[in-house]
Amino acid sequence: MEIKKATLYITEMPLVIPFAASYGTYEKRESIVIELEDTDGYIGFGEVVAFSEPWYTEETVKTALHVLQDFLLPDLLKAEISHPNEVPSLFQHIKRNRMAKAGIEGAVWDLYAKRQKKSLATLLGGTKSEIEVGVVIGINTIPTMLKQIEKYAEEGYERFKVKIKPEHDYELLKEIRKEFPHIPLMADANSAYTLADVEKLKRLDEFQLMMIEQPLADYDFLDHAQLQKRIETPICLDESIHSLEDARVAITLGSCQIVNIKPGRVGGLTESVQIHNYCMEHNISVWCGGMVEMGISRAQNVALASLPNFTIPGDISASSRHWEKDIISPEVTLKGGKVIVPQSIDSEYEVDRGRLMEITKQRIVFER
C-alpha cells in the first residue's frame, strides 16, 4: 500500500450529557479524524482520541495535530506498507505520542480491511459474533447517578462502571449496592488516590466490586502492587499501561489482576493485540476501555473486543450514550445488552461524510 493522500478533520461535537471524572468535566468533544487514500483508491478512516486538555495523558488535540502534521504524516506519505502491523516500526523513532500514532494505524487497518475484503474483526483474530458491553456513569450527585444506572439497566447494559474520587466513593457505592445489590459493578478512580488512602480503599471491599480501576498514579507500579496485597478488590490498570512492556512489568510485579486495553492509549490496534495475547498467556483478563470517542474508534473497539481474552464487558456503549447523531452508519446499537460484531466487509460501519462535515471546524489535506 502506498498512501497518496491524507486528510485531517478537526471536529467538535456536543455530548448528550456532560461527562465528569476525577480529573474534570466536559460538555463537548474535540477530536481529529484521519482519512487515508491509497494509490488504488481505497480509503480508510481513523480517529485520534486525545482530549482537548492533558487530563488523561500528556497528549492533547493540539499536540497530536502538531505531531501528525510535522512528523507522522510526512513519514507515512513516503512509505510503502504491506501490512498495518508495520506502522509501529515506521514511527518507532518518534517517542510516545501514541494517540496520534493510533489514529493513523486505525486508518491503515480500515483501508487494509477494505483491500482484503474482510472484516476488521476477522483480520485482528476475533472469535465472537457479538460482545457484551458496559456503560460508564460520570461523577454527579448520588440520586442522579442512581437514576442513570436504572435508565441504562433498562436499555440492556450488563456492566456498570462509576467514576469515584475521595469523598465521593464509599457513600456512593453504598447507595448503589442498596438499590442494585446484584449488578456487575466496578469503580474507576482515574488516579485520584495515593497509597496513604489504603484504609479508605479497603472499605470498598465490602461492595464486591468487579474491580477498582487505576486507583493510584499511572507510574505507581510498585505502589499498586503493595495496594493489591492489602485489598481484596481486584485492581485493574488503565493509565499505567502504555505498551506491552508496561503490561509485562505490571503482571510481573503483581500490580494488577486485570488490564484495560485502549488502542489510543497503547499506540494502536497492533500493540493492543500483542497486550491481549500476552495477558491471555498469563491468565490476566482484559477488557476494552472507552475514550468518549466517536463512531470510528468505537467501531474499531468492537472489532478488537471480539478477541477471545476480552472476557469482561467493555466500555463500548451505544452511539446514543454520548451523541445526538454519530458520524458512522449504522450507529453502534445494543440488542439484548450486546453489540453485533461485523463478520464481513459488507456489514462494516461506514463513515457518514455529511455528518462528519457538519462537525468539522478545520480540514487539512496532505498529498504524496
UniProtKB/TrEMBL annotation:
InterPro entries: Enolase-like_C_sf, Enolase-like_N, Enolase_C-like, Mandelate_racemase_C, Mandelate_racemase_N_dom, MenC, OSBS/NAAAR. It comes from the Bacteria. GO terms for molecular function: magnesium ion binding; O-succinylbenzoate synthase activity; racemase and epimerase activity. It catalyses: (1R,6R)-6-hydroxy-2-succinyl-cyclohexa-2,4-diene-1-carboxylate = 2-succinylbenzoate + H2O. The active site is at residues 163, 262. Its EC number is 4.2.1.113. Residues 142-234 form the Mandelate racemase/muconate lactonizing enzyme C-terminal domain. Pathway: Quinol/quinone metabolism; menaquinone biosynthesis; Quinol/quinone metabolism; 1,4-dihydroxy-2-naphthoate biosynthesis; 1,4-dihydroxy-2-naphthoate from chorismate: step 4/7. The keyword S-adenosyl-L-methionine does not apply. Mg(2+) binds at residues 188, 213, 238. SMART domains: MR_MLE. GO terms for biological process: menaquinone biosynthetic process. Keywords: Lyase, Magnesium, Menaquinone biosynthesis, Metal-binding. Gene3D superfamilies: Enolase-like C-terminal domain (3.20.20.120), Enolase-like, N-terminal domain (3.30.390.10). Its cofactor is a divalent metal cation. Belongs to the mandelate racemase/muconate lactonizing enzyme family. MenC type 2 subfamily. Converts 2-succinyl-6-hydroxy-2,4-cyclohexadiene-1-carboxylate (SHCHC) to 2-succinylbenzoate (OSB). This is o-succinylbenzoate synthase. It comes from Bacillus cereus. The lineage of its organism: Bacteria, Bacillati, Bacillota, Bacilli, Bacillales.
